[in-house]
Write a structure and sequence with these properties.
The protein is of the alpha/beta class and 296 residues long. Helix content is 35%, strand content 28%. The chain is built from 10 helices and 13 strands. Helix 2 packs across helix 3, helix 3 packs across helix 4 and helix 6 packs across helix 10. The longest helix is centred in the middle third of the chain and has 16 residues.
């Protein structure tokens, strides 16, 4: 089921095109990473999907319907677009109670989500005294109030310490494993590579790539130096690898795991002096930089 779907979404502000013919899908049971440079149109795309901005053309669908037509939308989709829309004088608990009352959500759910996001001990403190990470957790708690099928999260790791980032990764994985849909935008490419099942890359207001995260594993490579690279290369190719013969005498190998390379080399009595595998995070970074022209 395509829980989130954008069909040729376009948004113009006068002569400026913020989003152009944007089309992508995010199915249930998966975490979809939505990445792109600053100003690429990610937040505008989310705002159109959530009914906060009217598309110039095209349509954004949640469970097959525009957001404006959803019945009890907080029960179907939760979102975090920023973590600053809180009354500083209210406690975290009272903020959630106000939202729950407006959305006809039982107030008992408030303490459930406070515990879920790790804010139970700070629930009665004023939000004005919260750290950035605590406000981010409160924003996530607000999104979770209606126990929705779908989550849309824009930079949800902002302000979280490493432990918080790991906690969030586990939460999103659990959410998807329960058959729900998660769409997350982030600048942390390594974290995206660890977390997602699908990747959508947007640049200059348009989608330039979308596909399974499994393609990142296929793009991962192994660089090795051996006693006889010219002899080893054909054996690796026979096993299904793509081999690039470097001028230095090293080999760059894709589509074959390090363990298989070592086994093949041992079977043919070829010593390996050095072997270094890239990760899906490196593969995603290479793909991202190549498609967007971004430089770090």
């Amino acid at each position: 089921m395509l829980v989130i779907e954008a069909r040729q979404l376009t948004k113009r502000y006068g002569d400026e095109i913020a989003v152009k013919d944007l089309s992508f899908v995010a199915p249930d049971g998966e975490v979809t990473g939505f990445i792109g440079p600053n100003g690429a149109g990610k937040t505008t795309s989310f705002r159109m999907l959530l009914g906060l901005a009217r598309p110039t053309s095209g349509v954004g669908l949640v469970n097959g319907q525009p957001y404006s037509e959803l019945i009890k939308p907080r029960h179907q989709i939760g979102a975090v677009l920023e973590s600053s829309g809180f009354h500083p004088g209210r406690s975290g608990r009272n903020h959630l109670r106000v939202v729950a009352t407006g959305a006809q959500i039982p107030t008992r759910r408030v303490d459930e989500v406070l515990t879920m996001v790790g804010l139970a001990s700070a629930a009665d403190r004023r939000v004005g005294g919260y750290s950035m990470g605590m406000r981010q957790r409160l924003a996530l708690a607000t999104a979770l109030l209606g126990d929705p099928q779908t989550l849309i999260l824009d930079e949800p790791t902002n302000g979280l310490d490493p432990e918080g980032v790991a906690w969030l990764r586990g939460l999103l994985r659990q959410w998807a494993d329960e058959g729900r849909c998660v769409v997350v935008a982030s600048h942390l490419l390594a974290e995206i590579a660890l977390s997602v099942d699908r990747v959508v890359i947007i640049n200059n207001a348009q989608v330039v790539h979308q596909g399974s995260a499994a393609t990142l594993n296929a793009r991962s490579s192994v660089r090795l130096r051996s006693a006889n690279s010219l002899a080893l290369g054909p054996h690796l190719e026979h096993a299904g690898a793509t081999v690039t013969y470097e001028a230095t005498g090293e080999l760059t190998v894709t589509n074959l795991a390090s363990e298989d390379i070592g086994r093949i080399a041992a079977d043919h009595s070829i010593a390996i002096f050095e072997l270094a595998a890239t990760t899906p995070a490196h593969a995603l970074e290479t793909l991202f930089l190549g498609l967007t022209g971004e430089h770090q």
